[in-house]
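User: Fold this; tokens only.

Assistant: Input:
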Amino acid sequence: MSEHLRPDILGRLRTSTAVVQSDSEAIERHGEQNPLYVELNTRLVKLLNPASDILDRLAGTAILLALVDVDSLEDKQKFRITQQTKTQLAGSEMAISNEAVAIYKKLIEKRWASVMSSVETEVNRCLEWLGSERNEVRRMTALRVIEVLCSNHLVPLHSYLTKFFATLSNPLRDQRSEIRVAAARTLGACMGLIPMSERNVRNPGLNFLYEELQRNFQMASVEGYHGALLVSQELLQHGGMYMQSHFGQVCDMALKLKEYRDPIVHKAAIVLLPVLARYSPQEFTRVNTGSSESMMGRACNYLIT
């Protein structure tokens, strides 16, 4: 890696200085002809080549991340950085994907025109990966990119909510627990796009999610149970008043699965109990007719014994 990237280059870049200038006027004055930028871009082409060593590619992503923080970049430079980042998102190495998602998140937060103009294209690519891609790295990348986009509350994404909810159904019961957990986080971010006034029992999207939750539970498998618990948690945390009418059923599910033999399901059920308690303390501590103790009492008896 050292033959491609000298330590001083990254330091000079972070302060936006050229060889003999002390501020970002260097880049502003020379634009794409700035010697530092030319040198970095030449190195980036070599470092980000798919045939390069993974450490070299990680060095390339480090340069990209630093470049994003240069305030005086020209539109052509921003476009090139955006394209290079999107190319890295399509890779098959999880370490590279992680860095690429971090860069993409920063691009979205900065609202660069070069990235904002292609949001819907990127969404469609992610939906395609989740629908047909067998490469697990790409599927994980797709989940994380959608999470980033939805977390930034981009207006064009509201029209994709139905597709998001439908597409996330399979990842939420995927064989890999990491995929299920990532899908749940993405689901929560998607729900954040729903106006708070619409997070109620009349919302078709939330009703769809609850029906999926029930289907997952009825699968009576580790994947199904885990998916049901994860969706329950996201609905409680991001569904507003919606879960009030389903509170008892979800409590019963969590208490039923708290002693499940699989540690992933067991842990998810235990984690869900305090979420339920925070959501509706009154209901959680209520002793219902025909029962000798409250949900809280049943939970505490298990945790203490």
